[in-house]
Structures are given as C-alpha cells and as structure tokens.
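Database export, one record per block. Field names are fixed; values are copied verbatim from the stored entry.
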Amino acid sequence: MTRQVAITGVGVVAPGGVGRENFWGLLTAGRTATRTISLFDPVNFRSRIGAEVDFDAKAAGLTAQEIRRMDRAGQFAVVCAREAIADSGVDLTGVDPGRIGVSIGSAVGCTMGLEEEYAVLSDGGKRWLVDHTYGVPHLYGYMVPSTLAVEVAAEVRAEGSVGLVSTGCTSGLDAVGHGVQLIEEGSADIVIAGATDAPISPITSACFDAIKATSPNNADPEHASRPFDNTRDGFVLGEGSAVMVLEDLESAKARGAHIYCVVGGYASRSNAFHMTGLKPDGREMAEAIRVALAGAKLDASDVDYINAHGSGTKQNDRHETAAFKASLGHRAYEIPVSSIKSMVGHSLGAIGSIEVAACALALDRQVVPPTANLHTPDPECDLDYTPLTARDHKMDAVLSVGSGFGGFQSAMVLARH
C-alpha cells in the first residue's frame, strides 16, 4: 500500500522577513518586499529592482566557518532546514540516518559565490587568464550545485537518498515532489525537502535584461510585480528558500506531530516546444493538474484555492489562465486564485517550495493570501485572482502550479488531514 506523506515542519527565508511567521505576516497583510536592488550597484541595468532578503547570517545562527564555506543560497537552505525541524518537533537523533533523505531544488546554484570569486580571480574582469590561487578554498563546491543538498544533508545527518533537482523555475515544486515519492515508495521515512536560490547578481540580472523578462518599472519598485494586471510588464527577480519536513503520515500521527497537510498528488510535464516560449492553450500544465488531482483521488469540485505561478509576464499569466480553464472547466471561475510573487518576487528555483510553504500555511490557517498590486485586471485573465486583500476561506484542498524555462509544467495538490 502506498504511504501517505504529511508536511509537519516549515522553514522559510523570504523577502520581507526571515522565518515562517514573518513570511506569513507579509503575505496576509498584502505587503510587497520589492525594492531597488542593494546587493550590487544596478545603475547600468534595464531592470534595477528585486525582492531581496534582509539576511544576517550570523544573527540567523550560522558560525563564521559556515558563513565562509557556504554560498548565500546554501546559507538560506540550512537556516530553513533548522527552522523546519524545530517546527516539526521530530527528534532526528532517534531516526536511522539511512532512512532520512534530502531533496533540494535550485535553478542557478551558487551563483553569487561564483560571480564574486570570478571577479576576484579575474581582477574585476580585466584578466582573461585567471589566477586560481586567489580563489577561496571552497570554490569547487560553488561550481557543483549538489553542494546545496549536501550542506542540508550534513546538517540533518542524512545518509539516505540525497539529491538536487534543477528544473528551472519548477525546481522547488519538483524537489518536494521527489521527496514525496521517496517516502511513498518506502525509500525514506523522513525527507527534508525544499529549494533555495540567491540569484540577485549582475550576471543573472543581465541575462533577464537581455530577453526583457523582468520589469523595468524602476521608478515604482513596490508596485512593479503585478501578476494578472493589464499593466504588468515583467517579473521582479527575487531570492529566498523554503524547506519542509516530509514524513510518513502514520508515523507523524503516532508521535503526535502537528500536521499542516498531506501531499495528495504531484505531476510534471514538458511542452517540448521552446526554451522560453509557451503555447497559449496551456495544455501541458492542464495535463499536470489533471494527473496531480487524480493522484490525490480528487476532481475539480474539490479544489478550494489555486496558488498560481503568476510571474507577471503577459505570456505566462494568460497561459496558466487557459490551463486552469482546460483542466478545471467551469469550476475554474469559482475558485480563488492568487500569486504571492506579487509580494516576494520570483526567486527562480526556490519559488516553488516557497509557494508550497504558503499553501501549507493557507490550509492550516484557512486564509487565502492575495495578489498584491492587482488594480486593472487583464480581460484575458478573467478568474478570481483575489486582488489586494487576504481572504478567510474554508479550504480542504489546494492546488499549486509552476511553469519554468525549458517547458517544465508542474502541479501539486495539498489537502487537510
């Protein structure tokens, strides 16, 4: 018999505040954490805004050696893992290390560490032939994205399946989905799952500038992320992490754990179409939604809230609106939908796990977070996108979706226990 999987612990490092409760407070207040970039001088960039985390590694409990060793993304993940484990109340010292797994997602790995080290080794880009002797001792670790999962595994003494999932902007959803599958198939009893990315750096900003994907609304950064609004002009680059404790449901119940929700179903599809383009009919996302619902033994009538990808690009917002209609039929018009990217930006591979965390909290507290900055709805996005204000709402099952460069389309169904 397939085992059910519960989420029993949640840890978050996100724009607007470090910690699960600060994150939830920002969402339910409908506040935005988007601002002019301060992590580097953005003066020469088309888009000079971002959703940054006010993160003090030392205050967050990391040692000087950990801070020196880990890239910013790794620091986020370890701090989140510690909060999630404390929240779950699980005593990992009493668990066979071989039965503990780790599944971490990331789209761009240790980008900040790599860029900072390249600047030093190349003397600010002046030298084509770099001198490796100026590199930090852990430079090789920055080049291997799986280092992020290894850091979390070392933190929780996991000796079971440990891996990094990198599927662009669906990495966070897919990493949690992989962790769920490890427990379902019996390969692990507990999986520490989530994602992390710290991409607010010159190289990432330049890449998105080149394809004009990010918002150029530099004069009003607080209102630059406007998913589903007719005046939207691109997404706002963000950073952050969310990590969750996944457990076999029966084991969680036996130890009296607080159960945020169970993961009912998960599916991922690809459009095999274009690296950045999307077909307007949303067929692949719709198929992922249908399969995830079937896995949860639910149908459209059971969905009470949709956490949208909602990046704030015209192409994406219309694509997923079509996908909701194709997969959920007339019921799509009755379900509240929202995009938290309006408040915390788009942290690439991390955002899927941050959105799963938001869904777990929404189910636990029966509140739908809003879509901030939604004042003039796009006529082609004609669903209930929960504008501006959080909403008390009875929920038994929620749907979270993600869409990523490369054609990745993922969906996950979470349900109250």
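Remark 1: The mean pLDDT is 95.
Remark 2: The CA atoms of residues 173 and 352 lie 5 Å apart.
End of record.
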